[in-house]
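Standup notes, structure subgroup. Blocker cleared on the LZUJQKHR input:
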Amino acid sequence: MTLKIIVSGPRGRMGKEAINMILNEENMELVACIDRINNGKMLADIDGMPDVHVPIFVDSKQCFESIKADIFLELSIPDVAFTHTVNALKNGLRAVVGTSGLTKEQIHDLKILAFEKELGCIIAPNFAIGAVLMMQFAQKAARYFPDIEIIEKHHDKKLDAPSGTAIKTLDMILETREDKEQGHPNEKETLQGARGANQSGVHIHSVRLPGLIAHQEVIFGGLGQTLTITHDSYNRQSFMTGVKFALNKVNELTELVYGMENILD
Ligand SMILES: NC(=O)C1=CN([C@@H]2O[C@H](COP(=O)(O)OP(=O)(O)OC[C@H]3O[C@@H](n4cnc5c(N)ncnc54)[C@H](O)[C@@H]3O)[C@@H](O)[C@H]2O)C=CC1
Ligand SMILES: O=C(O)C1=N[C@H](C(=O)O)C[C@H](O)C1
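Run returned:
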């Protein structure tokens, strides 16, 4: 079976990489794109894009209503990702969402919609297998080391902080970590934000610098020792094996899955 795919964010760093991957897969066909601009044009008309006659839509509802497709791949920006995905599911498409920055409430609403429509939907905070393992290792370590700080480091074009990966790591850690307020009980910030974000006592620090791609360290502190679990993505190809896997897998699902760890064997 050929999977007919619509991609949102085709001119972006992830969108471009994903389109190249899709065009090279025998069982995948790119049938449309959703972009912020270029409504009515073909992908081939856009400088730097592959020479394929695939229509571009600005309005996602219009796109899903007029193009026959199986899967929607969301790789754009946090502000529109939720609406695009709702429109996809309402029009009977399955969805793979890589865009970060969805709120817990939005994820919950998508879960309900996917359940009602009996459609697969994968929300992947991080497609890189190494990052998924890093989160799983961190979840395991949190059973033994409840004092934890997360440092996520990304390129300076990133719109959301903390990263989707850091939020998912925290969710997974909190499933195994005993409740604990970290640091000194009388600790005070003399410069606001110095201790980063704090949820359930775990601190998250977001670094944004040119030169970085996507990196995370989870540091565990114990008596006389620390354990650091690190993952680095050095390019966007690092995510493509996971994108490909999710596009194939979502077709078998009839509900929403949040996190690649729940679908990897
Ligand atoms: N889950 C994962 O493994 C990964 C997720 N990401 C996430 O994917 C998203 C995209 O990342 P990048 O490609 O680096 O960003 P980018 O900034 O390079 O690309 C985003 C694209 O979305 C387009 N866009 C803006 N408004 C739009 C709209 N209304 N409809 C369609 N497209 C629109 C922009 O014009 C831009 O071309 C981000 O949220 C990022 O955090 C990035 C890397 C890996
Ligand atoms: O914006 C990015 O680049 C990335 N975003 C995702 C996130 O927010 O965790 C995944 C990866 O870290 C790259």
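Discussed briefly. Helices lie at 13-23, 60-66, 78-90, 104-117, 129-141, 164-176, 240-250.
Next: hand off to the docking folks.
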